[in-house]
Write a structure and sequence with these properties.
about 270 residues, 8 strands, 8-stranded mixed beta sheet, alpha/beta, 9 helices
């Protein structure tokens, strides 16, 4: 369904289940909510999952990518809560969605609880972690690095999907599920824009101490993109936060270890949201 926000923008949202609202932010940039389906669906027995296609992406209205920023994405969360007349909600973001969720937690703080899934502490540190992992892979890492460089010039949705296919082995500890990501409605112009401007150019470390809402930081044990190192920095900086490291999982921990991931999220939300 598309919901009209207060600024007149139409945001695509897919709802699963009933109960306490949990707004979900996908990774990317340039992807959509389908990355979570059906892996998070089981939470719908207790929660009202609100899967957003972030502004300019997926089935939401397309916009000039130059109008987009972490601040814009974060404020859309509150605009959606206003449009749906939500009195309270929790926010879960994964990968780039976790970067948005961390911005929301440090700058807005209107959610009752946060799940930062595969998050980053700063763009500079994230780049260093990825480069170190690529170096360890040798020749395979060189071809993977070329795929990331190609994000700066991607033009078509098919090119975007090919980049996604090329990069999936880096994001999974084991083999990616057959066909994973093929249902994505890609936004190459959004990916291209953010690839050329540092994916948001963020550094949350100075402001983590200001987060005063219950927060779960969750990461795959073998995540080579948003690493356990980054999650430890987030956990240590956010007072009272909880850290869960999912064993035998890479960046896509909710896919590779769905039951463990959902158990950790469910336990946290039951106690803290």
């Amino acid at each position: 369904m598309q919901f009209a926000l207060a600024d007149g923008y139409n945001l695509n949202v897919e709802e699963v289940g009933n109960g306490f609202p949990l707004i979900v932010l996908h990774g990317g940039p340039g992807l959509d909510h389908s990355m979570f389906r059906p892996y998070l669906d089981a939470l719908g027995d207790e929660y009202r999952l609100l899967h957003i296609d972030e502004r300019g992406q997926g089935r939401s209205d397309r916009v000039d990518p130059a109008t987009l920023s972490l601040e814009v994405f974060a404020r859309d969360v509150d605009l959606l809560a206003e449009a749906l007349e939500l009195e309270s909600f929790a926010l879960l973001g994964h990968s780039f969605g976790a970067i948005i969720a961390t911005y929301h937690a440090t700058e807005l703080g209107t959610a009752d609880a946060y799940v930062i899934s595969g998050g980053g502490d700063s763009s500079e540190a994230l780049d260093a972690d990825v480069q170190a992992a690529l170096d360890e892979l040798g020749d395979e890492g060189k071809s993977m690095a070329a795929s990331w460089e190609a994000e700066k010039t991607v033009e078509t949705e098919e090119q975007l999907k090919q980049l996604l296919r090329d990069q999936l082995p880096f994001h999974f500890h084991g083999d990616p599920p057959p066909g994973y990501g093929e249902e994505t409605v890609g936004s190459p112009e959004v990916l291209r824009y953010f690839a050329n401007m540092g994916y948001g150019a963020f550094d949350y470390r100075p402001k983590l101490k200001d987060v005063d809402k219950p927060t779960l930081v969750i990461v795959g044990e073998h995540d080579r993109t948003t690493t356990p190192r980054a999650s430890r920095v987030l956990h240590e900086g956010i007072q009272g936060s909880e850290l869960v490291v999912i064993p035998d999982a890479g960046h896509m921990s909710f896919v590779e270890q769905t039951d463990r991931y959902l158990a950790a999220v469910r336990d946290f939300l039951t106690r803290r949201a």
